């Protein structure tokens, strides 16, 4: 197969690939750090099998679809959103399953940048007499797996900085109250993202001020998973009786620090927390080093729900890939009221962090602005 994008596909090809994309998205939040993948098997102009990668460690989309076929698959076409794998991991190669099933044509939506695959899946299929074509609905398939593609190429998590603020940029009143700035629809969207991304990160100041649980309480997802909780705590000040520490046995919890206080470290570890020590960067946790460590642990994405200090540190460190800002139609005012991004700030207007590929939408009374950095 020519591995460049081909735009000359039939409406039927696009129809079946769009269905495969719909199926793939059902794995959102369950498959990290694997990609979202969907598959549709078609024979005699009929769908005879559908599947998707449902959960990390379980069947890949192609094998899931094959397992649900009640008809002979010989001579059929399979539409799959990502190049089939050809290596042994937690699951055997999908390419072998397609050959054994007698599939005659494979239509893919995007190539797999994983060095273990990256064209090798296509080559294997073609060497076994299967016609391979792609890439159908390529932009949609790439957009769906933006986290996976970033993680595979950079070996560190994709970071989303989320803020909820008033029209005048305040994230709390002058006496520290912040519940609730935004409405129910915005908060539900936040919890859906906690299910979507692998981890959530805050600063120790947020833990001390709010004593949050940082779990996922999405009502739109059945039995949503809780993200790994990460606290940036340079001096190990996280209260041992905080809700996060007390629930660390049930929900994976990481405390990132640059403190070498071994006694304090042991107290957190005995409570069920993992403690990561980084070098110090301007008296804070070195966020770039932390991202490298998290990537090595298989954490492919982090939603940053910190305060203004951590947010500015993250921007300075260059770890933020995407910004989500929820704006409520309210004004708090006050020079002592906390803002979404604090720190020293930039000196010149042309040094501002500028968003690209921006979107704006309404969520009830609130506005959500998103963009990439």
Automatic annotation (TrEMBL):
Co-factor: note: Binds 1 zinc ion.
Cofactor(s) for this UniProt protein: Zn(2+)
Keyword Acetylation listed: no
PROSITE patterns the UniProt entry points to: CYT_DCMP_DEAMINASES_1, CYT_DCMP_DEAMINASES_2
Record domain CMP/dCMP-type deaminase: where: 11-124
Residues of the active site: 62
Pathway involvement of the protein, from the record: Cofactor biosynthesis; riboflavin biosynthesis; 5-amino-6-(D-ribitylamino)uracil from GTP: step 2/4; Cofactor biosynthesis; riboflavin biosynthesis; 5-amino-6-(D-ribitylamino)uracil from GTP: step 3/4
GO biological process terms on file: riboflavin biosynthetic process
Binding-site positions, Zn(2+): 60, 85, 94
EC numbers, comma separated: 3.5.4.26, 1.1.1.193
CDD domains xrefs: Riboflavin_deaminase-reductase
Keywords of this entry: Hydrolase, Metal-binding, Multifunctional enzyme, NADP, Oxidoreductase, Riboflavin biosynthesis, Zinc
A Pfam short name: RibD_C
Residue sites binding NADP(+) per the record: 164, 180, 210, 234, 307-313
InterPro entries named in the record: APOBEC/CMP_deaminase_Zn-bd, CMP_dCMP_dom, Cytidine_deaminase-like, DHFR-like_dom_sf, Eubact_RibD, RibD_C, RibDG_C, Riboflavin_Biosynth_HTPR
Binding positions for substrate per the UniProt entry: 178, 194, 206, 214, 217, 305
Coiled coil location: none
MF GO annotations: 5-amino-6-(5-phosphoribosylamino)uracil reductase activity; diaminohydroxyphosphoribosylaminopyrimidine deaminase activity; NADP binding; zinc ion binding
Catalyzed reaction equations: 5-amino-6-(5-phospho-D-ribitylamino)uracil + NADP(+) = 5-amino-6-(5-phospho-D-ribosylamino)uracil + NADPH + H(+); 2,5-diamino-6-hydroxy-4-(5-phosphoribosylamino)-pyrimidine + H2O + H(+) = 5-amino-6-(5-phospho-D-ribosylamino)uracil + NH4(+)
Its job: Converts 2,5-diamino-6-(ribosylamino)-4(3h)-pyrimidinone 5'-phosphate into 5-amino-6-(ribosylamino)-2,4(1h,3h)-pyrimidinedione 5'-phosphate.
Family that this chain belongs to: In the N-terminal section; belongs to the cytidine and deoxycytidylate deaminase family. In the C-terminal section; belongs to the HTP reductase family.
Protein's recorded name: Riboflavin biosynthesis protein RibD
Organism (species): Lachnospira eligens
